[in-house]
Amino acid sequence: MKLTLIGNGIMAQSLARGLVKNHEVEMIGRNENTLKTIQEQIPQITIKTLDDQENIEGKNIIFCVKPYALGSVSTRLVGECDILFSILAGTKLSSLKNQIKSKYYVRTMPNIAASVQNSMTTITGDNEAKNIALDIFSSIGKTLWVNTENQLDIATAIAGSGPAYLALVAEALTDGAVNAGLERHLSKELVQGLFSGTASLLENSHPAIIKDSVMSPGGTTAAGYTKLEEGAVRDSMIKAINAAYSKAVELGKK
Ligand SMILES: NC(=O)C1=CN([C@@H]2O[C@H](COP(=O)(O)OP(=O)(O)OC[C@H]3O[C@@H](n4cnc5c(N)ncnc54)[C@H](O)[C@@H]3O)[C@@H](O)[C@H]2O)C=CC1
Ligand SMILES: O=C(O)[C@@H]1CCC=N1
User: Fold this and answer.
1) What ipTM was predicted for this assembly?
2) Can you tell me the distance from the alpha carbon of 215 to that of 26, in angstroms, rounded to the nearest whole number?
3) Per-residue pLDDT tens for 148-162?
4) What's the rounded mean pLDDT across residues 216-228?
5) Beta bridge partners of 5
6) Residue 156 Cβ < 6 Å to ligand 2
7) pTM, full prediction
8) What domains lie within the chain, and their CATH numbers?
9) With a 6 A CB cut-off, is 89 part of the ligand 2 pocket?
């Protein structure tokens, strides 16, 4: 299947890197030089600059611009596409329907790990396009179909924004090891291994069980864990997800 990405930013490039393995990929952007540089890095894609009257008739579009650019880009699109897949945070299906003509509409929320084919992508929209959507986004990682846009907005907070939150934890742990006296390159390697091993454990174990099985009475883990509770890490995580979700809802009202 041929897929047309509109936008050439971080996410369009991440998606393209994964999608080229199984699909024909066209990338439409504003700047020819930027597109050429991207094509040098992902030679399988075809590139095209956005026309003032860009014909999308019969195409399968993955819309990858910033939410605020929906209005200005959509006025340049003519014709009716087959399926419009949007990755825009917060932007409602109703808003897409008002501004871009398509047979079917799908909202998706991938994450930056699409670039290494390990995205966690949440999807909702027209049921007629469900199987195609799951098939396309499965080629860049795991997928989860949900039935409401509200669920997708919550998924945006956790799986869309989540890499930034986990990256913060990874960076902080690394700094902690450096603070304790370990060389940075060794600290970094340890944290990479830690994340990968813990991700494997999480496939089959509840987080609380993992925590309980690590924490010995009066041991090192308990000593460190107390500090995390003092720093309200759990409370901060819950508040972060709530704030990101509220922002997605707010973007949807614009
Ligand atoms: N960065 C991330 O981790 C994720 C981002 N998203 C969503 O992906 C979308 C793109 O985000 P990024 O790739 O991070 O942003 P970016 O800034 O890297 O890319 C945005 C793209 O939109 C284009 N664009 C902006 N205004 C335009 C206009 N007026 N006319 C034509 N093109 C225009 C830019 O040229 C660029 O190609 C956003 O809607 C965001 O909500 C979704 C999941 C994860
Ligand atoms: O920060 C944002 O708004 C986008 C959506 C999810 C990840 N990045």
Assistant:
1) 0.95
2) 51
3) 999 999 999 999 999
4) 98
5) 27, 62
6) yes
7) 0.95
8) 2-147 (3.40.50.720), 162-251 (1.10.3730.10)
9) yes
